[in-house]
Design brief:
alpha/beta; eight-stranded mixed beta sheet
């Protein structure tokens, strides 16, 4: 299996010491996949996906975002993108993602990049593409809820109240109850509070046992998440994208975090209404949240193979 145990430290212009995993194929890569992980997890969990991609000629870069995993930043303690005094945390996350993107192109000049993100990482991937629309040949946004809607506005009001009472740099007390806890309760006959992640009991237990997973995010981090979510669906922002950029959306029909894939379908329509001409969508009806760690049909391997077919089309299409 691809070894993600010894990451490189990449110094970001933001001041973060980014923990970066790089996995290379045996021959010259046909493309790069830059992976963005989700909330309260880390990049090393994507080693099986990186191995699969390596076997099919892709170089992989996956880093821990600020406040996650082994990445260190003086302005970003665990659970936060940045302290309140440091300004907008999500913009620093995008700047760090650019640093990784730039490093990847330095190692592999003139090699196309596919920007990939899962859940919160899908929000990051989407916002990176909005900020730097010409730095990827394709964009894959998996299991991300980019339709916060009215419930999101209520959450923002509650976060603003928490910020006034508790401060920004402490774990939110309310958002875990509205998200992770509710999603856990929605699973019938659940074995653990995290069964909403996957049907695969071993994968769920591995997540639970990992000290770098499942922690409560800060008030400011949740505010950054909603800021990214609303920006991603803004028509003015979407107009920044090349209309022919291939965008691949994936969801789970049993994923409570995306309302059973409804948020994924909504975003696909939003993109098409904004003029995007190459939007593909796959909602796996039997899957939950972590497509890459699922045992439900077609399983993680089947989803990876679907991604490979899409990526091959991206790389070999003729405009």
């Amino acid at each position: 299996m691809t070894d993600f145990s010894d990451p490189t430290i990449l110094e970001s212009p933001t001041g973060a010491a980014i923990s970066l995993h790089h996995a290379a194929p045996s021959d010259t890569p046909q493309a790069i996949v830059q992976i963005n992980h989700g909330l309260a997890e880390h990049a090393a969990r994507y080693a099986p996906f990186a191995e699969f991609l390596n076997q099919h000629g892709f170089a992989v870069f996956a880093h821990d975002h600020r406040g996650h995993g082994r990445t260190k930043a003086t302005d970003a303690p665990t659970g936060s993108f940045a302290r309140a005094s440091a300004g907008s945390g999500w913009q620093s996350v995008i700047d760090d993602t650019l640093a990784v993107n730039t490093y990847a192109t330095t190692l592999y000049p003139d090699t196309p990049i596919i920007t990939f993100g899962h859940s919160m990482g899908g929000m990051i991937a989407m916002n990176f593409a909005l900020t730097y629309p010409d730095r990827q040949a394709g964009l894959a946004v998996w299991n991300a809820n980019l339709n916060p809607g009215a419930a999101g506005r209520i959450a923002q009001l509650l976060l603003a109240a928490e910020r006034m009472i508790l401060g920004s740099d402490v774990p939110s007390r309310l958002l875990p109850k509205m998200t992770f806890e509710q999603w856990g309760k929605s699973i019938k006959d659940a074995r653990t509070p995290f069964d909403w992640l996957s049907h695969d009991e071993e994968q769920v237990q591995t997540y639970i046992d990992d000290p770098d997973c499942g922690w409560d995010a800060s008030v400011s981090l949740w505010q950054d998440v909603f800021a990214m979510g609303y920006r991603a669906g803004n028509r003015t922002e979407l107009a920044r994208l090349p209309v022919s950029l291939p965008i691949h959306l994936v969801g789970g029909g049993q994923d409570p975090a995306t309302d059973g894939g409804k948020a994924v379908r909504w975003f696909a329509e939003r993109l098409k209404q904004a003029g995007q001409s190459d939007v593909s969508i796959q909602v796996y009806e039997t899957m939950r949240h972590e497509t890459l760690n699922e045992s439900a049909p077609p399983g993680s391997k089947g989803a990876m193979e679907d991604f490979l077919r899409w990526a091959d089309r991206v790389l070999h299409r003729t405009d």
